[in-house]
Amino acid sequence: MSDIPRIFTTPPDSFEAQAHACCCFIHHANQLLFLRKTRLWPGKWCAPGGKVDTPETSLMAIKREVLEETGLLIPETYLVSKGSLFIHNSWGQYQLDCFEAHFAERPGIILNDEHDRSCWVSTEEELLLETIPAQKEVLRQIYPSFRI
Fold this sequence. Notes:
Elements: E1 6-8, E2 19-28, E3 31-37, E4 45-46, E5 49-51, H1 58-70, E6 79-89, E7 92-102, E8 115-122, H2 135-142
Parallel strand pairs: 2-7
Antiparallel strand pairs: 1-6, 2-3, 2-5, 3-4, 3-8, 6-7
């Protein structure tokens, strides 16, 4: 299989997820928050998120991951599900549950040791950051008008 991920909006017949993850696209004033990783894929950028642990729901997991990675305690009323994607990369298959949250005022970000920088990227400009595998493809699925 090539390094280009195959992304599905419904699980294909042969799909067997080896992992369950979630991510949250945090918005403020036509900008999205990205974090630069220090461990797995160091130097690459991504939206906040991570693994859904047993017995968590995706909603519980994304609230925990966003709090751990950014210091933001997002009220459930701010979180909107953008659906699930089923991703097949060269290293396996996983389910990714996507959320978004909108903030009227730019929230302060407190990074944990998984990330060393944060930045806000305009949704009206081309995304030039070097991202983790499948991040740009996920963005294309969730936000087709975002220039990537």
